[in-house]
């Protein structure tokens, strides 16, 4: 694999904040930097709830992938959810995202993760990539969200 994955650490916060802000701008997520920092910092400090990987060289990353962890009785243990996955527009469609995800799946499996889930736009061009990597749509299911941040 040519594309490197690095587990993000606290000293990567400033680089990550810019990439996360770009992802949020592209996808219409409204979040201020204070909230973004509060959400990222625990993951960079070793929280068991998730992990962020920098894609590409640590000093000049081309993207990031954030995984949150949970527990699934159905899957038989720890499961992961791709919370955010972003590659810089200038280097998209060069295979870096696919390489990163291809390396991440077996690493998570070896770490005991039983399933990895992701949410994707049904019209997204990366749908074919996800299918090649073993992700399948669950026709009987859809992701539903109750936003508990607001009463």
From TrEMBL:
Identify the residues that the record assigns to the N-acetyltransferase domain, covering every copy.
3-149
Name the InterPro entries for this protein.
Acyl_CoA_acyltransferase (IPR016181), GNAT_dom (IPR000182)
Alphabetical UniProt keywords = Ribonucleoprotein, Ribosomal protein
A molecular function annotated in GO for this UniProt entry is: acyltransferase activity, transferring groups other than amino-acyl groups
The domain of life for this entry's organism is Bacteria
Q: GO cellular component terms?
A: ribosome
Pfam families in the record, alphabetically?
Acetyltransf_1
What name does the UniProt record give this protein? Ribosomal protein S18 acetylase RimI
Q: What species is given as this protein's source?
A: Tropicimonas sediminicola
